[in-house]
Every structure is written in structure tokens, then in C-alpha cells.
Amino acid sequence: MKMNLVQAINLALKQEMEKYPSVILLGEDIGKDGGVFRVTEGLWQQFGDDRVIDTPLAEVGIIGTSIGLAIAGMKPIAEVQFDGFSMSMLDQLYNHAGRMRKRSQGKWHVPLVFRVPHGGGIRALEHHSESLEAFFTHMPGIKVVTPSGPYNAKGLLISSIRDPDPVVFLEPKRVYRAIKEEVPEEEYTIPLNKAEVVQEGSDITVIAWGAMQKVVREAVAQSKYSVEIVDLLTLYPVDRKTLIDSVKKTGRCVVVQEAPRTCGYGAELVATINEKALLNLEAPVQRVTGYDVPVPLPKLENYYIPDATRINKAIENVMSF
Amino acid sequence: MKMEMFQILNEEGKIVNTRDMPKLTNDEIKAMYEYMVLSRAFDDVALKLQREGRMLTYASLLGQEASQIGSALAMHKEDWFAPSFRENGVFITLGFPMDALYQYWAGDERGMTIPEDMNALPVAVPVGTQIPHAVGLAWASKLQGKKSVAVVYFGDGATSKGDFHEGMNFAGVFKIPCIFICQNNQWAISVPRKRQSASDTLAEKAFSYGFEGVLVDGNDVFAVYKVTKDAADKARAGKGPTFIECYTYRMENHTTADDWKKYRDPAEVEMWKRKDPVERLRKYMESEGIWNENYEKGVWEKAKVKVAEAVKKFEAVEPPKPTDMFEDVYAELPEELEEQKKDFE
Asked: Which of A1, B121, B133, B219 could form a disulfide with B277 if both were Cys (CB 3.0 to 4.6 A apart)?
């Protein structure tokens, strides 16, 4: 069935809840209202108050109680409404969710899923458009997953729910309703350490994740170069083999990231490429990123988020190096 | 708002509230005393080991034995225990091996190996962050139809934190079987209780979350046992959470890295010495004819032997392997970490 990313996530949640009674949802306005992005629409009506839980307006409470629930055998899927509101939750994620297995010498683990609408591009208010993946990937003990479309969203979410470790699931909010794809009704999983080569090419590799995948694909559709596109899907643990193999093949690479540049996740990729494939490179790897500024409000947002012009310019720079 | 302090055993070791005195056999009262002495012996040796460089920074529980042992003895085997970093008395009473506690406080994380049948969380150092975990643990009990409750410990300083507010609020809204034990020991390192909150008592905060708050003499082991047991019975009966403020005093430094003489009046410490929880119970037992010098000698000797054995055992443990740091980070070591581990080797 053709569906968008919101519907694909909704379907995955519904099917996992039907299959596993321990799966519960926690968040603000996720019940009767179906969530601010309508991702949980209809689930409260089907599963009731004990499994689709409208919490008080308290992000630390949501993630902190989810840690306890997960330790005690539940499978909490916690939602934050917008990425910018997740900053207060980093303490609980870093100090406890990612460390509990270690701190308890393996006795307890925290198999929660933390769903975060991620990135900008929806003309939202302040603090509604951040890309915080580098904060999460820097935390030991946590996995970070980011789908780019409806098909991989369903498979990745099911894998995340069944994973024994805490998973931060970054949902590209500008793609929520922007892409429709064939999504099978039956369940399927996508492993949490596999990137995908979504377009083969021989001249240059472009690496992107989440919402930037759509931007990259559209940007290079008319390119005069043979562009290979890698979609990371999981940011930690990242599938280094796929991206290194691709860079070794093409010898050139551009990394596209929506977040601010300095210490962004793209820097980690460039370092990895330098360590593993430097001698295969024909040109320095170039980054296309947001700027080191607070995400601008909608009037300037489109100048901040990497677009086709900037991506093609970077490709041209690398090709003509 | 004026709250009465709940008390059963006064500073002179006299029962001032016979109506609420829990029904305890002489053996049970002796067990209370012996756990309090054992915790004190453990604590005393921990401080000595630290001074001798055989252990690292340590947070003493001296003076808080009644709050810790009284509440721990009211818990059931299957109940959840969520500690902060000062609850060695609770750990010991619940049966956590003392050698493992020393091992942990000596910087060997393997010491935090929680026994198979014990529902305890590891020591939580960031103040108050364990409070929402306990609420989640108790919430799971409720959702799973179990009878276990969660008991979370923290100090007066933690009540200033957002984690405290959010945890308490969830517990009230969802009527979660969680017991919040605040050991108000009057000092958060050097900051006095009155700098944490302008409210007259901490216990009264519970009412604004829609549930019961109890102010109890934290140096009265009978009173602490009674209010904790009542709170646990209530939680098990589906009647929701309770906040217990144990009014007590930190007799020692915050940790071995601290010096209280910089910020506390020695007269205040002297005043609290007269309220000592162990001495108070001893006096009561003497008046009841279940304590004498011989018994006292025996209890301390037994405790010292146990502690000495624990020290011997933990100091004989082989140091951890450097590659242990890669264990228990993920269920399965990711390829990237596998590579880092190989690089190390």
C-alpha cells in the first residue's frame, strides 16, 4: 500500500503493539489527539489509556520514567514533540539510558525507543527545527537511527523496538508527508547497522541521512556526473563498510548535513574516510552543512538548510579539484 | 502549613507513642540494632580505608542509620530499591555483599554487581536523577499487575531539582506505587536546608502533587519503619505514592573530599550527637531488658569481624582487565567498538 512516513510509523507502532503487550507509548498529546504530527493517530482508541499514555508536560519525566519502565520489562516508546525540546532529556539519556547496562554490570538494560521529530523545513516556531544527531551519537550505549522515507521508516522502527539497547529514532519531519512509497502491510525489519546505496554511480559519493536524502536525490537528478548516493539509515553504529567501499570506488565524496558544521556528525564521517580511504581520494572530502548559528526562523530558514545549489556547487568543487 | 513530626522513640529512648509502636519481637528489634551497628562499623572502616589510600571518595551515612535501616526493613524482597550515593546502610540491610560495596567505592565497577534476586538499581551519583526511574519501575509494577513497590532515596538537596518535581508529579497523576524517602540531613555539601526551599517542611510538598507527605523523626528507627511500612501497604493496596521526609543529620563530611568545619557550627553537630539513632535504640533496649554490656560487645565484635572479612575479600580481588571497559556497553559490541577494543589490545 502507498503511504507516507507518518502512516508508515503509525503502522509499525500499531503492529508492534498488537504483537507485544509490553509496548507502550508515552508523550504529550499522543492520546486522543494523536500527537502533534498525528503519528499516533487512532492508537489510543485501539489500545486505551494504559498503553497510549498522555503524560504531563514534562520531558525529563517522560524519558526518566521510561528508563524505569524499560528496566522493569516494559517497552516504552517515548515521544518528544520537537527536537529542540529534547535538550533537557540529554541528562537522562547520557547518564542513565546509555549507561545503565554498564552501571549495573549487565543486570539491567534500557530497551526504550525515543522518537524525535527531527530537523527543519516546516516553517515552524523557534526551537522546533533543530538537528541534534551529534548530541545523541556522542553518547556511549545509545543507538541512533534516522529513516529517510516511509519504507525504511517502518522496517527501522520495528528493528528499533525489538532492539535490547536504547534507540534514538530521528524522524525527518519535513518528509513526514512529502514522500509516498509502497510499504508492505506485513512486518519486516531493517538491520540497525546497514547503510543503503540508493543510487549507484562512479564519479562521486554523496553521503546524507534523514531529510537531506530527499534534497540530495533531487539535487543530483540532473547532474552531469555519475553520483553514488549513500543513505546511512543508522548513525550509530554506522555501516562504515558501505560508505568506505563507495568512497574507495568513486574516489570523491561530499557529506551533506543539516546541522551546524562544527563537531557535526559529518565531521566524524570525514575523519573515518580519512582513516580508511585517504589514499583512494582524488580530492578532499567536502561538507555541505548548516551554519554555526541558531537555526533561523522561517524567513531565513531556507538559506540555512543545505539545498540543491549548495550541494551541486560542492560536487563541482570536488570534481574539478 | 504546620506539620507534626511523627515520633515513637524519643531522644531518651522512651516510647512516646505507644499507639503507633509497631508490633516487633525482641529478635526483630535486636536485628534492627545489629544492622545499624553493622552499617556504622562498615562506614567507620570505609573512612579509615579512604584515609589510608585503600579506597576512594566515600559518602558516609553516619547519623542516618535509623532512616536507612528502618525503611529498608519495611521493604519486601521483590520491591525495587533506587539509591542515591549515601545508602550503604540500605544496601547492607537488603543483603548486598559488603565486600562488593567496598570494591565499588574503591573504583572497581564490578563491585556494583547486583545480586540475582535483588531488585536494586546501581548507585546514582547525579543528584535526584534516579527519582523518575523509580517512578517508572513502580509504574511497570502497576501496569503488569504486580504487588511490588519502588522505594527511592534522595536528600534534601534533590528536592530542588526538576527530576524530583517531574517524578513526584507523574507519581501523583498516575497513582504510582512509589515511596519517596527524602533523608533531610540538613546539608547539601555546604548549603543548608533553608537554602533549598522556603517551605516550612519538605514533606508538605507532597500535598501539592496530590498525595500524602509524612514528616518523621529520621533518627527514630521505629517511626521510620512504621511510616515506610504503612506507605508500602498503601501502595500495594493501589492507593498510590507517599513522600516521607526523614528529619535527620549528616554527622560526617559530605564525602571524604569535604571538610564540614568550613561551614558548620560545631555546636550544631554536638546538638545532633545527642539525638544519635543507635544510642537511642540502645537505651530503649536496655530499659526493656534486651541489652547489656555483653550483648553490646558481642554485636560490635561480630560486626567488626564481618567488616574485616569484607575488606580482606575485596582487597584480594584481582584488578579488572583493561578490556572490561568494553563490556556491557551494548548487548552486542558494535563493529566500531570491536575495532577500538582490538586497537587497545
From this structure: B219
